[in-house]
Amino acid sequence: MSPSTSPSSPWHMAQRAARLNPSVIREILKLTELPGVLSLAGGLPAADTFPVEAMREATARVLTEQPQAALQYAASEGYGPLREWVAERLREQGMTHVKAEQVLMTTGSQQGLDLIAKVMVDAGAPVAVETPTYLGALQAFTPFEPIFAGVASDGQGALPEAIARLPHDAPGTRFMYVLPNFQNPTGRVMPEARRQAVVKAAQTAGIPLVEDNPYGDLWFDEAPPAPLAARWAEGVAYLGSFSKVLAPGLRLGYVVAPPALAPKLLQAKQAADLHTPGFNQRIVYEVVKDGFLERHIPTIRAQYKAQRDVMAEALREAMPAGTEWTQPEGGMFFWLRLPAGCRAMDLLPKAVAAGVAFVPGEPFYAHQPDPRTLRLSFVTLRPDEIRQAVAALGRVVHQALEDTLQAGTP
Amino acid sequence: MSPSTSPSSPWHMAQRAARLNPSVIREILKLTELPGVLSLAGGLPAADTFPVEAMREATARVLTEQPQAALQYAASEGYGPLREWVAERLREQGMTHVKAEQVLMTTGSQQGLDLIAKVMVDAGAPVAVETPTYLGALQAFTPFEPIFAGVASDGQGALPEAIARLPHDAPGTRFMYVLPNFQNPTGRVMPEARRQAVVKAAQTAGIPLVEDNPYGDLWFDEAPPAPLAARWAEGVAYLGSFSKVLAPGLRLGYVVAPPALAPKLLQAKQAADLHTPGFNQRIVYEVVKDGFLERHIPTIRAQYKAQRDVMAEALREAMPAGTEWTQPEGGMFFWLRLPAGCRAMDLLPKAVAAGVAFVPGEPFYAHQPDPRTLRLSFVTLRPDEIRQAVAALGRVVHQALEDTLQAGTP
C-alpha cells in the first residue's frame, strides 16, 4: 500500500514522490559492505590518495587563525578566496571568461545538478542526456519530472545530428547534460572535433549545455581538450568538484553559471541549505591555495593508471570471448558489454555470491537500456584485489554462458 | 527583461524560477557588512560561544583515528553513531518512539525543509504556516509552488480553531509548518495546553505537522514543554539542528520522519547532494558523544539571558510610547511592533544610515504583512553594542514619528 493512500497516515505526497525510487547504486553499496565482497561497484576514489596530512595542517590553521568566521553562518555564494581560486584555475584551463562572481560553491557537484534542475525544469519539459549517462544526474533531475530525451551517442560521446533532432522550439529542450571527460559510466572522452560539433549543434538548436567535469584532472597520458564551456560562455553551465582530487567526504563542488542563470541558481541554493559549510570551504582553500594540487594530482594519476593497467590485463585473461570494452584513458571506470545472452542484472547476485560486486549498466540509461552492459571501478581496490575480483567475475560470466548454452540444448 | 525571454540567452527557465527572488535577509546581511553598522538583523549565534577548543580536539581525533572513512563517500542517511546519539537525546526529551533509523542527517535543518517540500508539495497544493513564520521556511517551500495558508496566531502560536478551517479533504493541506519554541521571528513559546489543542486539531483535520526546533535548548528559566512530535508520532516530522548549540558553519541538522515519510525523504536527500559531509558528522559526534552539550549549553543560556536583559532595558529606555513587544523567554529574538504610522521597511535605510540594522517583519508573513513589525537579534552583539544599537534605533523611530506628525500638520 502506498503511504499516500494509507488510511492511518496523514501524509499525502507530491506526485513527484512516486518517481523517487530506491537507488540501485545505494542498494549495491550496501552489498559491498558485506564481509568478503570485493567491490568494483562504487565510484569511490582510492582512500589512500586522500591528503590526510595536508588536511590536518589546513584544519589546524583554520581553527587557529579564523575559527569564529569558519564556524559562523556565511554567504550563500561561498567563500570568496576559494571562488577566486576556482575562477583562476578554470581560466588557466581555457574558460577565459570566468569571473569569481559566477562561481557558486555547492555541497558536492551533485547539488549543482539538483539546483540546475530546480531552476530549469518544469514537469513535462524535455531534458536531453547522453546514452548512457551518469545515474546520479538522472536521479537529481527526476524529482522535477522532466521527459528525458536520450541523445544517441558513440565512443566519442553525443552525436551532433542527434542533438539537431531534439525538441528545440522555445521553450523546447531545457538543457542537454553532458560529461565530456572520462564519462561515468563509459569512461569515454569527447575528442576536440566532436566538442566543436556538439557545441555548434547545440548553439544552432538553441539548447544550453550542462557540462559536468568531475574526472577531467584524472587523465593518464594526455590532458583532454578544453571544456565545452570554453567555447560557448553564455550557453554552458559548468560543474566541478573537489571529490576526486582531494576527498569526497568534504562534499565540495561548484557551478559556474552564465550571467542569465547565476542569480536564480544562487536563490535556489539559499533556499536549499543556506550555504555549503564554510568550515570545509576554508579548509580546502588552505590546502589548495599554494599549488598543492599541482603536486598531488600527478600522484593520483600515476596510481590510477597503474590500476587501470592491472584491470586491463586481468580482463583480457578472465573474460570470455565476445566481451567488449575500450581501455579508458583516464577517470575511474571500465565499461563492459558482455557476450550475447548475458544480462548483467541477473549476474549481479551470482557475482556477489562469488565475492565480487559491480554496477549493472541498465540504470545509466534514460530509455532502452542495454542489459549486457556493466561498470567496473578500477580505482577503489588495490591491484591484487583487482586481479582477484576480475578473475572471480570472469568465472561467473563463463558459468552463465555455459548455463545459457545448456538451457538452449534440447 | 526576464532572462527566460532574452533573445540572446538559450536558458528558458522553469515557471518556479519566477517565484525565486532575491532574499531580503541576504540583502540585509550584506548591509551588516558595511563598516560602522551594528547589526541586530541576522540570526547569527554569538561567535564567542563556538567551542573552538573542543572542535580542534575532535577534528584532530577524527583525522588521526579515522581519516579515510571521514573523507570518503558515505551513506545518504548519515553517520550511524551520530544518528544513534540524536535518537537517544530525543527519546530523553519525550519523543520516546524515535529510532535511529528514522534520523536523516541533513546539510543544516534548512535542507530538511527543502526535502520535505520536495516530497510533499505539488504546485497549487495548500501548505499552512503560522502568522508570522520563519522566512527561510517560506523560501524553502516556495520553489515547489504551494499556495500558502496563513494560520491565525496569537502570543501562544497557531490558533486551533484556525487549523480546523484549513483545507483538509484529501489531499488537502499537505502539512502545517510550526515552530513551537522561541519562534523565529516572534520569540513566542507554545504552552502545554496550546500544544495539546494544536495537535488535536491537526489530527482531527488529518493535517500532518512539520515541527522545527532549532531554538528549544536556548531556554532561560524553564525548559519548554515536550515537542509536538512526542504527542503524534506518525503525524509529525521533526527538524533539529546543531547550528545554535555548536556552530552553524558546520551545516549540520537532522529530520526525524515518521515511517510513512522517511524512505522518500532519504531518496530525495540522495538526489539532492548524496550525503551531508561525513567529515563534519564525525567531528560533531566526537564533540558531543561524552556529554559535552550538557556542560556547554548552560553557558550559552546564561550569556543569551544576560544579553536579553540588556536589550530589554535598552528598549524600555529608547523606544517611544506605543511600541509593543513581549520579553522572550529564550531563543534569539525580540519582535517589536512600532507605533501607528511607522513602517519598518521605510525605517531600515534610515537605521542603517544611523549605524544599526534590523529585519523588517514583512517578509515573515505569507499574506497580509503587518508593516509595523520588526525583528531584533539579541545574541549577535556584545552588551555595550546592543545598548548603542538600540539607542540609535530609538532615535530613528522617534525621528520618524516626528516627521509623520509634521507631515500630518497642515
From TrEMBL, chains A, B:
Cofactor(s) needed by this chain: pyridoxal 5'-phosphate
InterPro entries referenced in this protein's UniProt entry, alphabetically: Aminotransferase_I/II_large, Class-I_PLP-dep_aminotransf, PyrdxlP-dep_Trfase, PyrdxlP-dep_Trfase_major, PyrdxlP-dep_Trfase_small
Pfam families hit by this protein: Aminotran_1_2
Span of domain Aminotransferase class I/classII large: 40-393
Presence of keyword ATP-binding: no
Domain of life: Bacteria
Molecular function in Gene Ontology: pyridoxal phosphate binding; transaminase activity
Keywords, in A-Z order: Aminotransferase, Pyridoxal phosphate, Transferase
CDD domains: AAT_like (cd00609)
One GO process term, biological-process aspect: alpha-amino acid metabolic process
Family listed: Belongs to the class-I pyridoxal-phosphate-dependent aminotransferase family.
Subunit-level organization: Homodimer.
Name of the protein this chain belongs to: PLP-dependent aminotransferase family protein
Species whose genome carries this gene: Ideonella dechloratans
